[in-house]
Amino acid sequence: MKIVNLQNENRQFIKTADNFHVLEYMRDTSVSPINAENEYFMSKMNVRRRQVVIEINKDHSAIIQAGTMQWMGGNVKATTGVKGIGDLFGKAIKGAMTKESAVKPEYVGEGYLVLEPTYKYIILQDVSKWGSSGMTIEDGMFLACDSNVKNKVVARKNVSSAVMGGEGLFNLSLHGRGVVALESNVPEDELIEIDLEDDELKIDGNLAVCWSSNLDFTVERTTKTLVGSAVSGEGLVNVYRGTGKVLMSPVAPTSSLDEATNTLDE
Q1: Distance between CA atoms of residues 124 and 53, nearest Å
Q2: Which residue, among 122, 91, 117, has the nearest Cα to 25 in the 3D structure?
Q3: DSSP codes joined into one string, 155-210
Q4: pLDDT in tens, 63-76
Q5: pLDDT tens, position by position, 137-182
Q6: Which secondary-structure segment (H or E) carries 243?
Q7: Which DSSP category does 118 fall into?
Q8: Which residues contact 206 (CB under 8 A, 6 or more apart)?
Q9: Is residue 50 a contact partner of residue 24, using CB atoms and an 8 Å limit?
Q10: Is the pTM for the entire model greater than 0.90?
Q11: Is residue 44 classed as helix, strand or coil in its secondary structure?
């Protein structure tokens, strides 16, 4: 198969990791007079459409978030990845706990798989570089991964404080070899990388994008007493302890990029 004009002066691959590519619309010309002005200024502020393009072959199949496929070319077929009713039940529970879709389709064969465009930033990470324990990601950030990447659900140690802080109780942990694509409200070059060596990191809010799975992850009060927390003006914080690394957003976005751009499109 030969694909012509996937890349041109308006669309370019801005990052490649293994068989995963990020296609960015440098200038989106598919606009109408109604939204042309908005699209122009959005592009100047780096708010652009981005897509994941995945090469599928005998060594690399892909697992994606349900409903994100835009088109596929070649001898590429979608499977459910479900091995039976018990597996379906387990995936449904896992999906409910991590805010991800219960069943993530797997695409196999030989050809190309292109995902739906998004205004969010796409982060490509090589899971093998996170060590044998792998990486854990924040809820709702998973977009796609190589099928060689294995996943499991990990729970926070102190469940009660997570509930009090309005945090999720579980996160998706990825390990093995292969690339994972994450959706982020912040560009990758703005993320802060913090390497911990038998140390701890405390973050107020869900600023962490992903972290080493071997780190102890809890939700705790900033001080030992409720009175102390009230006096300090801080409540509960996410705490990461041990040896590993954390990728953290420098700011909390005021609103979702997708929500904002959907409003503009309307």
Answers
A1: 12
A2: 117
A3: E-S-HHHHHHTT--SEEEEEEESSEEEEEESS-GGGPEEEEEEEEEEEESSS-EEE
A4: 999 899 999 999 99
A5: 988 899 999 999 998 888 766 555 455 544 556 788 999 999 999 9
A6: strand 236-248
A7: B
A8: 138, 167, 238, 252
A9: yes
A10: no
A11: helix
